[in-house]
Amino acid sequence: MIKKKKKQDSIIDSSLKRKYKLQAKNVKVWYGDFLAIKGVSMDIKPNKITAFIGPSGCGKSTFLRLFNRMNDYVDSFRMEGEINIDGDNIYDKDINVELLRKQVGMVFQKPNPFPKSIYENVAYGLKIQGIKDKKFLQERVEESLKQVGLWNEVEDDLNKSALALSGGQQQRLCIARTLAVEPSIILMDEPTSALDPISTAKIEDLIYQLKEKYTIVIVTHNMQQASRISDSTAFFYMGDLIEYDKTNKLFTNPEKEQTENYITGRFG
Amino acid sequence: MRKLKELVIERALLISSLITIAVTIGIILVLSIEAINFFSEVSIIDFFTDTEWTPLFTDKHFGILALLSGTLLTSFIAIAFAVPVGLSISIYLSEYAPKSFRRTIKPLLELLAAVPTVVYGFFALMVVTPFLQSIFPEISSFNSLSAGIVMGIMIIPYISSLSEDALHAVPDSLREAAYGMGSTKLQNAFKVMVPAASSGIVVSIILAISRAIGETMIVAIAAGQQPRFTFDPTVPVETITAYIVQVSLGDVQHGSLEYKTIFAAGITLFIFTFLLNTLSYRIRKKFQEKYE
Amino acid sequence: MNNIRKNRIKDQAFKYWGIACTLLGLVLLAIFIGNILIDGIMRIDWDFIVNLPSRKAERSGIYTALMGSIWVLLLTTLIALPVGIAAAIYLEEYNKKNKLSTILEVNISNLAGVPSVIYGLLGLEVFVRIMEMGSSVLAGSFTLALLILPIVIVSTREALKAVPKSVRDASFAMGASKWQTVYHQLLPASFGGILTGVILALSRAVGETAPLIVIGALAYVPFAPSSAMDEFSVLPIQIFNWITRPQHGFVENAAAAIIILLLITFVMNGIAVYFRNKWQKKFK
């Protein structure tokens, strides 16, 4: 799907909603000489919410960013192993990174809307794919904003700067921007850590609804959040995947002592 | 298709940035080729030891020292004027002045560097020289003192702005530590801040010197066109830059010895400023590492 | 106690010395502008702007020089702007930290410090002679374009640097290519900053005299240029020429022309500062 040769089965075609499986095979990541991920393998289930937890610096964000190759922009980044999406290794030479990122959307820690209008923010992903049809763009923008529950709030201000929105609205806008290009997978890197509790609750509800259509992987430092919304949880510590299980199981009856220490708040 | 477009764009951007290297190579080639031609006709030893520069006369001498002394003299006067004033400004603005004052005064000071140099030349010739003559009547109408002082005014912002940036970059913790020890602003400024920001301040002074050495119109207008090996600030002199302008204003045949002299003079100037710029770049790089 | 008092007095003394120094330059500039205004303001009228140069001071005007300056300014912009911005984009967004980037960086910083008269020598040899442009508007514009290129590059890089990394992240994560990110996000977001730098660079170009004298721009041109290959003069050269004439009438002319030149320079600087302030607010 992501490979160039299959380019024609378009990115926009939502009828093609397959179940996307993510898979990491013995992945190691270095920043210069520093080994940041020490050989991690895991399978991530489609149409579920998978949470990555662990103390800061444990490699959970680095690991998340492997799935849309955002680490490529770090100068000293180097990796070994495979990341497969539906069977294709996304670090293969013939992978088109831009197409990959249309499939795998990302929401960042701090809301980062473009310094443009609300409309332009949501339409951006479609426009750079060369879509010019005004009516289609308009519809997608409306649809996406409705999906995140922002439509009623901004309906009349579509041409106003996105930077004028509140933090929580900005983050929902960023999610709408991601949804507009109809990805199958959404990566979220601590999406609520910069937000107040009310905005956080709204975003959590939204994430929960989105799981019907999307495979969601979320990094969070907030264990309550992980236990509230995720189906599976992976605990990372110092570049290793320590434990990965159903969320219920991991939080109530962890296998490993390190996991238990962490979730009971003894460190991190 | 898209990959190709990206590649073509990247190449075009790369070529644009390589143009800057072509410019440097161009400057070095042009100056050295004409200078080599020049030195095939004029002894390089005479060039550096003769104290007379008279290529436009029948009795030709090619002693660059006569032009160099003019350049160094005017630059020295400018620096002697601008460094104490510029440094005082930078210390005052970073350690004493209220923030709002600083914000309004800085762009105004930078205006001093924005005034075209031909305008400063007019100022030196029409205002400063007559003023100096009213105090010291023996000063001639063209002299290096007036040109040097006005050049000093022009480069004040080079020193004050860059030094102020350097002082500003010193971490606040250092400032607080000094005040915590009970020092006055003055003691803090000279005993803690200035030493901590010394490399930045040195860079600003070097850049100012380089600017003064390369300055053309002020000296061409106010310092005269009489090359002479002297350090007397009251008499007319000629700088390297002023000589290049003087020759360019005349009708000089391409390929003639006079034509080549401006390139020989030019390469001397270029080497001086190149060394100063490289030095300042080195210091600046080292300084950046220190705080990162 | 005594010692502490002495220190406080010294402290106060330096404060006033600092204020005096800060005001010194500005006071001198004010005196000077006042002087120029007294000398030249009476000389400025419509005729002064639209008259051709003449041997008689009172009939001379700045028309040809002013037109020359405008021609040179426009062509310089056309040449320096695309090259400078493209080079800056390459250095800031595409270039990995390697040997080439270090060389480019050192080189640009050095070019910024090369005296303007040296650019004149380069222009004289390369544009005027080897490329056979003669002492034309085009040769002058190329020369000044090279002169301001480092300024345009450095200020464009600063402007790009000021765009938060999160904008790049967001754009790449949406599947945008590098160029799409530059074109759709970074350039619009840094537009104000780039504009500021470019205007400042051009205000420098409009006041340059020496390099244009060296490439052979004339002090006396009977007509305003009508094409890029025509001979030309510019305002600063006209001023220089009038300053060096002994008759008193020309001093007035010089002062009057200086008023016009300063007006152009200060207005350009003012616009630049306005854009800078407006743009700086954007990311704060």
From TrEMBL, chain A:
It is found in: Cell inner membrane. Keywords: ATP-binding, Cell membrane, Membrane, Nucleotide-binding, Phosphate transport, Translocase, Transport. It holds the Pfam family ABC_tran. Its main location: membrane. It comes from the Bacteria. GO terms for biological process: phosphate ion transmembrane transport. GO terms for cellular component: plasma membrane. InterPro entries: AAA+_ATPase (IPR003593), ABC_transporter-like_ATP-bd (IPR003439), ABC_transporter-like_CS (IPR017871), P-loop_NTPase (IPR027417), PstB-like (IPR005670). GO terms for molecular function: ATP binding; ATP hydrolysis activity; phosphate transmembrane transporter activity. Residues 22-263 form the ABC transporter domain. It is a peripheral membrane protein. NCBIfam families: 3a0107s01c2 (TIGR00972). Part of the ABC transporter complex PstSACB involved in phosphate import. Responsible for energy coupling to the transport system. This is Phosphate ABC transporter ATP-binding protein PstB. It comes from Christiangramia crocea. The gene is pstB.
UniProtKB/TrEMBL annotation, chain B:
GO terms for molecular function: phosphate transmembrane transporter activity. It is a multi-pass membrane protein. The lineage of its organism: Bacteria, Pseudomonadati, Bacteroidota, Flavobacteriia, Flavobacteriales. InterPro entries: MetI-like (IPR000515), MetI-like_sf (IPR035906), Phosphate_PstC (IPR011864). This is Phosphate transport system permease protein. One of its GO terms (biological process) is phosphate ion transport. It comes from Christiangramia crocea. Belongs to the binding-protein-dependent transport system permease family. CysTW subfamily. It holds the Pfam family BPD_transp_1. Keywords: Cell membrane, Membrane, Phosphate transport, Transmembrane, Transmembrane helix, Transport. It comes from the Bacteria. The chain crosses the membrane at residues 12-33, 62-87, 108-133, 139-159, 262-281. Residues 68-280 form the ABC transmembrane type-1 domain.
UniProtKB/TrEMBL annotation, chain C:
InterPro entries: MetI-like, MetI-like_sf, Phosphate_PstA. The keyword Transmembrane helix applies. It comes from the Bacteria. Pfam families: BPD_transp_1. Keywords: Cell membrane, Membrane, Transmembrane, Transmembrane helix, Transport. It is a multi-pass membrane protein. GO terms for molecular function: phosphate transmembrane transporter activity. The chain crosses the membrane at residues 16-41, 62-91, 137-156, 182-202, 209-228, 254-275. GO terms for cellular component: plasma membrane. GO terms for biological process: phosphate ion transmembrane transport. Its main location: membrane. Gene3D superfamilies: MetI-like (1.10.3720.10). It is found in: Cell membrane. Residues 66-272 form the ABC transmembrane type-1 domain. Belongs to the binding-protein-dependent transport system permease family. CysTW subfamily. This is Phosphate transport system permease protein PstA. The gene is pstA.
